[in-house]
Amino acid sequence: MKTHDFYYDLPEELIAQVPLEDRSSSRLLILDKKTGKTIDGHFTDITDYLVKGDVLVINNTRVIPARLLGVRADTSSPVELLLLKRIDDTHWETLARPGKKVRPGRKFVFIKDELEATCEEVLDNGNRIINFEFSGIWEEVLDKAGTVPLPPYIHEKLDDPERYQTVYSKDPGSAAAPTAGLHFTDELLNKIRDMGVEIAELTLHVGLGTFRPVKADSIEEHEMHSEWYDFPAKASEIIRRARSEGRRIISVGTTSTRTLESVASIDPEMNPHSGYTNIFIYPGYEFKCVDSLITNFHLPESTLIMLVSALAGRENVLNAYKHAVEERYRFFSFGDAMFITDLYDGRN
Fold first, then answer.
1. Is residue 249 a contact partner of residue 239, using CB atoms and an 8 Å limit?
2. Which domain holds residue 266?
3. Comparing 118-122, 155-159, 178-182, which segment has the lowest mean pLDDT?
4. Is the pTM value of this prediction over 0.90?
């Protein structure tokens, strides 16, 4: 299957640059995954498509201030590091800009006497292993020195960094937000709970690899990035019981989907599990756990549009995207949402 098979034309002005004032006031495009039928609505309409007994699965990861701006200790020339993966208490795998300045042995200063670093290794993929020296508690130092990295297609300054966090974020570790969850408010979640919908929490720390383009002509040749996840006992209990009773598993976002399908691929019984996943879901994949998906609109030719195409069919998804463009939906991280489901499964 060709990467270009997942291309669609998107006017740049439809890329949302700032979040809406009210999280849940975004639009919602409902897509029937079997027929391709679409319905236009608003995100608060999601309750019209949920029923008692459904399980909503959310990713409770929290974005860290992973962008660090500093200088070389010897020349004071500027450098930028993006934290990707924590290796131990002081070592991180990072992206570095400009890379030619971040070489093994070189030292960098972010806050003098509070946060300094040394490059220890350049990996085959170009990432750097950085050893940080800091005074105090790491999380507090990072909050002081770093900023939240926004996706490369967002050019506007974000006035309130909390708007790039879900209202249920709690486990720090992501370099990017699980953006499908940005539409939920506490009030909407409480309404959903009151309907008798169960909410299961898991964690997948989103890496910047989620924005990495697919450069291979054939998607089967793409090397998927790896991300850490935790599927805890409580989520396992909720989902195992629901599946045994034939109830729907509704994933909020592609990150929750990748976690659930990774666990199901390892253990069909869905017992608690944690580890790293590089699962690549594209058309032809048979879903083992997820029935329906709440998601945002994704970049052309990205692994994320390939994932949603696996659930709903490539033609259905591309036709839905064409409709969204024509109706001037807002796209990507701060944009509108889709609910991909089976409208006629007898449960809604």
1. yes
2. 3-63+159-341
3. 155-159
4. yes
